[in-house]
């Protein structure tokens, strides 16, 4: 009988360290929001108006913000090549270095908008790659019992990074020179160096070691991660299972991108589901607040500084993500997504309607705001905060968890890369077009997100099966069974399936010389 895999302290700490890549992304995403309204930043990278005042046009805002997302899209695809050639460990270190270089280019610019956006694109390459490698590395090194939890921790670190960027800008925006934005942007080099320090203690993925013929090294890593000796039966069992899976993957040659959409085991449905969840997640509306919240809240007419409001929003995001550590397992994937879509849709609708009917036009002096304007602004901010909290509890982590547990090993790296690339593509589209749309329709942009959330609820109900507590092999059977997604809660694999999987593993170990 198979032994339960112990959750060693070293394996847990390594998994949490790798999840730090989420902090790196979150900080980078949040830091640009405050920079967009800093006077020195506007003077250096904006345009001079007819009145002699400098301003950042919607087109410049969209270019500055979206070039990071364009880089992340390319990086998410590129890592599929480096993670096989350089290994998971080597790939993490390589892309951490790329990110650090991109941050250095941004920090070193003076008045060049071109240098700034090139630096953001290069940093984006690192962020996008790491966002795809983390679920891959986590799935191959973290103990099975905590893989879902580690991916939630990854999301917690994203939100924590956003929150820290807001806190730092709350203090730095009062500086009357370039340090106001150089300090929060340049601090990202520290995050990159922290990940680079992993070269001293990060082990290579045992699966990659076996796949490249380094069996002795793989056994040593498995033993270390599980806190046992190399000749322990647990190590033998895990290594034999990995070896069998690798040979099964390689039957019929190397997996291709097209295979991710094959009809075998409904791979096409699983890949589409992973991509669609990432697409819907990006158009929930929360990233609009993260990227352009400071600018948006200026027109809400609240008595607080937009920096303070954004900091409160970041704190709410952090606290909203913490319950997900419990709810994603207690509720399951479907219920988390369905409930999250419904609650966020109500919030987006209220923000759109109240904002459109009560907020003063952008640029209205604070002294000219009426009681109705201020009351409307309070409602907008309250429901924006509630929407971000709901996102953190549900749609923030759940699509990433679903992505990490939906694919067989043969196509897993490529399918996860497609899901991550989808996330970053729509992140780019959102960050590029949002300021242009807001210029035209103002708060009614939230109706776009409302419509997407309604669509998301319908899509999850009819297309996303429950995968809580299932192994990769059991997910295969779930999709083969043809059970409707809305009846998949509580589904259990057949005894025949378990018997066949056990027989394959036993047969393989008997045939080994």
TrEMBL record:
<protein>
    <submittedName>
        <fullName>General substrate transporter</fullName>
    </submittedName>
</protein>
<dbReference type="InterPro" id="IPR005829">
    <property type="entry name" value="Sugar_transporter_CS"/>
</dbReference>
<keyword id="KW-0812">Transmembrane</keyword>
<comment type="similarity">
    <text>Belongs to the major facilitator superfamily. Sugar transporter (TC 2.A.1.1) family.</text>
</comment>
<dbReference type="InterPro" id="IPR050360">
    <property type="entry name" value="MFS_Sugar_Transporters"/>
</dbReference>
<feature type="transmembrane region" description="Helical">
    <location>
        <begin position="304"/>
        <end position="328"/>
    </location>
</feature>
<feature type="domain" description="Major facilitator superfamily (MFS) profile">
    <location>
        <begin position="14"/>
        <end position="468"/>
    </location>
</feature>
<feature type="transmembrane region" description="Helical">
    <location>
        <begin position="415"/>
        <end position="435"/>
    </location>
</feature>
<feature type="transmembrane region" description="Helical">
    <location>
        <begin position="93"/>
        <end position="112"/>
    </location>
</feature>
<dbReference type="GO" id="GO:0016020">
    <property type="term" value="C:membrane"/>
</dbReference>
<feature type="transmembrane region" description="Helical">
    <location>
        <begin position="12"/>
        <end position="42"/>
    </location>
</feature>
<feature type="transmembrane region" description="Helical">
    <location>
        <begin position="441"/>
        <end position="462"/>
    </location>
</feature>
<dbReference type="InterPro" id="IPR005828">
    <property type="entry name" value="MFS_sugar_transport-like"/>
</dbReference>
<feature type="transmembrane region" description="Helical">
    <location>
        <begin position="149"/>
        <end position="168"/>
    </location>
</feature>
<feature type="transmembrane region" description="Helical">
    <location>
        <begin position="62"/>
        <end position="81"/>
    </location>
</feature>
<feature type="transmembrane region" description="Helical">
    <location>
        <begin position="180"/>
        <end position="202"/>
    </location>
</feature>
<feature type="transmembrane region" description="Helical">
    <location>
        <begin position="379"/>
        <end position="403"/>
    </location>
</feature>
<keyword id="KW-1133">Transmembrane helix</keyword>
<dbReference type="InterPro" id="IPR003663">
    <property type="entry name" value="Sugar/inositol_transpt"/>
</dbReference>
<keyword id="KW-0472">Membrane</keyword>
<dbReference type="GO" id="GO:0005351">
    <property type="term" value="F:carbohydrate:proton symporter activity"/>
</dbReference>
<dbReference type="InterPro" id="IPR020846">
    <property type="entry name" value="MFS_dom"/>
</dbReference>
<dbReference type="Pfam" id="PF00083">
    <property type="entry name" value="Sugar_tr"/>
</dbReference>
<dbReference type="InterPro" id="IPR036259">
    <property type="entry name" value="MFS_trans_sf"/>
</dbReference>
<keyword id="KW-0813">Transport</keyword>
<feature type="transmembrane region" description="Helical">
    <location>
        <begin position="337"/>
        <end position="359"/>
    </location>
</feature>
<feature type="transmembrane region" description="Helical">
    <location>
        <begin position="118"/>
        <end position="137"/>
    </location>
</feature>
């Amino acid at each position: 009988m198979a032994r339960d895999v112990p959750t060693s302290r070293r394996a847990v700490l390594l998994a949490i360290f790798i999840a730090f890549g989420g902090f790196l992304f979150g900080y980078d995403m949040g830091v640009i929001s405050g920079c967009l309204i800093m006077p020195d930043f506007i003077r250096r990278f904006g345009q001079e108006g007819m009145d002699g005042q400098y301003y950042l046009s919607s087109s410049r805002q969209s270019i500055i913000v979206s070039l990071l997302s364009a880089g992340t899209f390319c990086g998410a695809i590129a890592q599929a090549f480096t993670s096989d050639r350089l290994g998971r460990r080597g790939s993490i270190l390589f892309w951490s270095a790329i990110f650090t270089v991109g941050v250095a280019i941004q920090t070193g610019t003076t008045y060049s908008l071109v240098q700034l956006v090139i630096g953001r694109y290069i940093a984006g390459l690192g962020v996008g790659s790491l966002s795809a490698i983390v679920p891959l590395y986590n799935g191959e090194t973290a103990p099975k019992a905590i893989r879902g939890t580690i991916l939630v921790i990854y999301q917690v670190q994203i939100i924590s990074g956003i929150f820290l960027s807001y806190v730092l800008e709350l203090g730095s925006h009062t500086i009357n020179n370039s340090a106001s934005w150089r300090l929060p942007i340049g601090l990202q080099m520290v995050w990159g160096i922290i990940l680079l320090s992993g070269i001293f203690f990060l082990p290579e993925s045992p699966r990659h070691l076996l796949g490249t013929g380094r069996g002795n090294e793989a056994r040593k890593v498995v033993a270390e991660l599980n806190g046992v000796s190399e000749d322990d039966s647990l190590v033998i069992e895990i290594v034999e299972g990995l070896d069998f899976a690798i040979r099964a993957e390689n039957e019929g040659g190397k997996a291709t991108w097209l295979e991710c959409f094959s009809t075998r085991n409904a791979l096409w449905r699983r890949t589409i589901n992973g991509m669609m969840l990432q697409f819907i997640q990006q158009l929930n509306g929360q990233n609009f607040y993260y990227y352009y919240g400071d600018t948006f809240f200026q027109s809400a007419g609240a008595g607080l500084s937009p920096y303070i409001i954004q900091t409160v929003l970041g704190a709410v995001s952090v606290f909203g993500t913490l319950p997900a550590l419990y709810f994603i397992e207690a509720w399951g994937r479907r219920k988390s997504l369905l409930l999250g879509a419904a609650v966020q849709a109500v919030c987006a609708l209220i923000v759109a309607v109240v904002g459109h009917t009560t907020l003063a036009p952008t640029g209205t002096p604070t002294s000219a705001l009426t009681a109705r304007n201020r009351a409307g602004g309070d409602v907008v901010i309250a429901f924006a905060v509630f929407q971000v909290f709901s996102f953190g509890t549900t749609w923030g982590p759940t699509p990433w968890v679903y992505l990490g547990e939906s694919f067989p090993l043969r196509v897993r790296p490529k399918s996860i890369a497609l899901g991550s690339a989808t996330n970053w593509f729509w992140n780019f589209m959102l960050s590029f077009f949002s300021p242009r749309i807001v210029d035209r329709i103002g708060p009614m942009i939230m109706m776009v997100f409302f419509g997407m959330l309604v669509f998301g609820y319908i899509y999850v109900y009819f297309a996303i099966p429950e995968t809580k507590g299932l192994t990769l092999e059991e997910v295969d059977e779930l999709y083969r069974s043809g059970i409707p997604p809305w009846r998949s809660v509580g589904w259990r694999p057949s005894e025949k399936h378990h018997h066949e999987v056990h027989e394959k593993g036993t047969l393989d170990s008997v045939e080994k010389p």
